[in-house]
Structures are given as C-alpha cells and as structure tokens.
Specification:
By secondary structure, the chain is an alpha/beta fold. 35% of the residues lie in helices and 20% in strands. α6 packs across α15, α8 crosses α10 and α12 crosses α15.
Length: 538
C-alpha cells in the first residue's frame, strides 16, 4: 500500500453529451485531489485516458469498465473520483473482484453532481458486499478530508463516526404509535400489493433493485413490465384525452414555459405527449392491479417519448387530472394518488407505498416522493436576527414531486424543459419550492443480504428568493427544490451513513405529528421484517 502507485478511475454517464459537458468539472476535481495525494508523498496513475473521438475521459460503459480494470493490478489501492453523475454498473464488475483498498471520493458541489453519483455507488457497493471507504471535500485541503486521506493511505480504511444512528430496539417508542404501526403492517402484509416496474436498473442503479426474496415477505410483489408496453399504450391515447389533462392543469393554475425550438425549448406538443403517457400509466396500473408504479425513463424511453417527470408528479398527487377506463368510463383510482418511484428505484417505491397507506390511516397528507440528496451549505438569516442558522440541504429531483408539496400547489408549480443533454425529446418538469413544515425522511436499502430502513426528522424551511435562486443555479434550475434541515444529523454524518443517492420524504401536520408518524412507520417496517435505525434527534 505504501509503495504502490494509487490507481484512479473516473466513471461517467452512458450519454456522450453529458460526459462531454462534465469533462471540465472532472478534470478540476482530479487536479486538486491528485495534488493533495502528492503532498502526502504518494503517486497517482490514471487507469484510462482521454478519448479524442468521444470527447471525454470517462468510463462510459460496462464493457469499457471491464477493459480498464483488466489493466489495474488486483491488489492496487484504487480511488473512484466523481465530480459527475455516474452509472454504477460500469464499475461494479471490476470493483466486486478488486482485492486492494477502494476509496470513493466526490467534490462538494451540486453542479453535475458527483455527490449524488458517489452515494449511488456507495449504496451499490454496500448491497454487493464490497468493502470500501469514502470521502468528500470542497477543495481537498480541509482537515476533515486530509485526516481521512492519511488514514486511508496508511491503513486502507477510513471509518466515520455515526453516533446519530440508533437501532430501533434502543429507542423508546410510544405504545400507541407502536401498536398502530404493527397493526398496519400485519394487514398490509396479509392483503398483499403489486409494484409495477417498467424495466429495472435505471442508469446502473444496482442499489435500487430489491431482490424478490427480500421484498416478498413484506407482502409486496413485482409486476415486471416493459417500457415498450408503456410506449405502445401511450400511442392508443386519443388527442382529446391528452388535451383534457392539459386543460385541467391550466385551470388549476400551473404554468408552462414554452419556446419555439423543440430542440432547446419546451413545447405544447411535448407536454401533450406527457399527458398521454400519464393516462397510459394509470390505465396499465389499473389493468395489472398495481398500487405503485416505477418508470425507468432515462434509457430506452427517452428515445421514444418526452421525459416522464410531469407524469410522475401527477401520479404522486391525490388531486390530479381524472383518467377513465376505456371500456367502462369509470374513473380510475379516483381521489387517490398512484405513488410513483422516480428512476424505478424500488427501495423508494416500497417505502413510498408503505408511507402513503400508513399516512392515510393516520389522517395525514399522504403525498410523498423521493429526492436526490443533492448538496447543501450553511445558511444564516441575517435579515431576521439570525433566527435561522443551520446547515440547509438541497433536496432536488427531476419532477416526481407532487404539487401538494409545493408552495401554492398547482398555482405554485411551473414546467420547464428537461436539459437537452439528458433528454433529446424534451418534456417538462414540475418545478416549485417545497412548502415549510415538518417531514419524516427515510431510506430503504440492502446490506448483508437484509432489508434495512433508516429514518429521521427534518424541517423544511423557507429561504429568501435570492438564496433559493442561487441554490437552483448551482444545481438544476428546472427541477423542484426542498430546503431541508436535518434534526440532529450533521452533513458528514449523513454522508457517512446514507446508502443511496435518494431520500424519501413525507410531510406531517406539525412536529408532534411527524414524530408520531415516524414511530408508527418505524414499528411498521420492523414488523415487516426490516432492520430499523432511527437517526438524529426526535
């Protein structure tokens, strides 16, 4: 370890357009990271170079990843450096057989985003049972990073303290909440539910695939469907039906930002196509008896249809445009959401379905969604006498957020075109600012062949518009945003523990109700067989 060169790999997207735009950010990360390592007296060897024909230096396929790892000594110290979103399956074949110490590293930036990519890779490695260490930094000169780097260079391991994590058995759960959760779970498991999965493994997210043998004991079973079926169903939806959905959204006050160029702008035709996909998804769910739906959408469907973000946000909302059965004319899932798990993240889908049904039983607003755990920074509200002085996270996802979560509901929601680097055929998001209030956050993940569940409290806070705009501009301004303050969990503790790029959130009427809901849900998950941990202060 002390004399060997350290090999460095940079994993990327499958799409050349994304990799080309992110090349400069990756080069900047590697420059500062390598400089820090050299100061410690070690050398770094990049395991793959810049491809002039492709216009970038990323590993961009599983095939190429295997070729790269074939040239890396099996026992060499290895760093996976990420400034961008990456497809974890590009690296997993090599990482699962690598025998040397592995370190995943990301720059503390929300722009492309490397933090999200690293968390996805970490969750995938955890599920695969691969030993790894992880670090993050803004500029790779801070004491936290340097201490961790030196430990890894010396021992091949970095261990982060996580005192905020408590097993459920060590937490005093109110008896009433525990009974509510257990009773709910027993009925849920007995009645059984179907999860509709439109193609698994979005963007190589191995950590987002729940093994059937772990999922089935909870009472949830997958209906594996193809995105081609969704596309085919979309083609059967009549123009006037799509127009009715669009008119409903306009009547509710939603704003669409259109432009003349479909290559760069959102157009009405793109939105009407999204409305058809929405109708098709509801009809297929009804046909197969599904109570939750996940659409992969990033690969395959993106070459056929506009992005499904508008679709997903509508499905997640109880108040949504009506969809009718073609044969009977009956409204489908009337008055109910059809919980959607963005990027077909089955961990989020299972969590979201349990949350939706339990929250309905508790009488709480049941709309819930996943977000990317995107980025964050300290914020002090100087104009209000420092009332808010906290680390405020940016939770951000491409459009699955239900309008019920947004300030103003539909009237506070707007739709902007998905970036062309990801979606050639466009499609609009549901953009807005999440309303202030108390939420329960959570994540289902796989570790050691078991289903596990982390949960905690957070407060969604209101920030000045200028601060919100700055955070949007530093991440993805087309997407909905949530300003979240985790309770009793620091930035570094969250990064050290969280086993996913995604985090599930649901509102409660107030802090006391959020606490009650958290306890009931923790008890329900434990009854369903998950290993539960409560994180932070309650």
């Amino acid at each position: 370890m002390k004399t060997q060169p350290i090999y460095l790999v940079a994993n990327g997207d499958l799409r050349a357009s994304a990799n080309q735009k992110c090349e400069a950010a990756q080069a900047a990360l590697e420059k500062t990271l390598i400089a820090a390592i050299k100061k410690e007296g070690r050398t770094v060897k990049r395991a793959h170079g810049f491809d002039k024909a492709k216009g970038h230096s990323f590993i961009d396929s599983q095939k190429y990843g295997m070729e790269v790892f074939a040239s890396i000594p099996a026992d060499a110290p290895l760093i996976v450096a990420e400034a961008v979103w990456q497809y974890s399956h590009h690296l997993l074949p090599g990482l699962t057989t690598h025998q040397g110490p592995i370190l995943t590293v990301a720059n503390w930036s929300g722009t492309w985003p490397g933090l999200v990519g690293m968390l996805n890779l970490n969750g995938s490695l955890t599920k695969a049972g691969v030993a790894y260490s992880t670090l993050w930094s803004e500029d790779f000169t801070d004491a936290f990073f340097l201490k961790g780097l030196r430990a890894w260079l010396k021992t091949g391991r970095v261990k982060h303290p996580t005192p905020h994590v408590k097993p459920l058995r060590a937490v005093k759960v109110p008896a009433a909440a525990a009974k509510t959760g257990r009773d709910f779970a027993r009925a849920f498991r007995s009645e059984k539910r179907i999860m509709a999965v439109f193609d698994e493994g979005c963007m190589g997210m191995y950590n987002a695939i729940l093994p059937d043998e772990l999922l089935a004991p909870t009472g949830v079973f997958k209906e594996r469907l193809s995105q081609s079926a969704l596309y085919a169903k979309t083609l059967t939806v009549h123009d006037e039906e799509a127009r009715a959905v669009y008119d409903w959204l306009l009547k509710e006050g939603m704003t669409f930002h259109f432009g003349p160029d479909p290559v760069a702008d959102l157009t009405e035709a793109q939105v009407l196509a999204q409305c058809k996909t929405y109708i098709a998804a509801v009809r297929i769910a009804a046909e197969f008896g599904a109570r939750t739906v996940g659409i992969q959408y990033q690969q395959g469907l993106k070459d056929l249809l506009p992005a499904s973000d508008l679709v997903e946000g509508l499905l997640n909302n109880r108040k949504r445009p009506p969809v009718f059965d073609e044969a009977t004319g009956k409204e489908l899932f009337k008055g109910e959401a059809l919980p959607h798990f963005n990027e077909v993240d089955e961990c989020a889908g299972f969590d979201g379905l349990v949350t939706y049904e339990l929250w309905r039983k508790l009488g709480y607003p049941a709309e819930n969604t996943l977000h990317d755990l995107r980025w964050g920074r300290q914020y002090q509200d100087k104009d209000k006498g420092g009332k808010l002085d906290a680390y405020v996270w940016v939770f951000l996802i491409s459009g699955a957020v239900p309008p019920a979560h947004l300030v103003g509901g539909y009237r506070g929601a707007s739709s902007e075109r998905q970036p062309a680097m990801y979606f050639r055929l466009g499609g609009g998001t549901i953009k807005g600012i999440s309303k202030p209030g108390w939420i329960v956050w959570s994540r289902v993940f796989v570790e050691g062949g078991k289903l596990k569940f982390d949960t905690g409290l957070a407060e969604v806070v209101s920030l000045p518009q200028a601060e919100t705009e700055d955070r949007w501009n530093l991440t993805t301004p087309q997407w909905p945003i949530m300003h979240a303050v985790l309770q009793g969990v620091t930035r570094d503790q969250m990064m050290a523990r969280h086993k996913s790029n995604h985090i599930q959130v649901v509102y409660a009427p107030d802090r006391a109700a959020a606490r009650n809901g958290l306890f009931a849900k923790a008890a329900a998950m434990a009854e369903l067989g998950l290993e539960v941990a409560v994180c932070g202060d309650l």
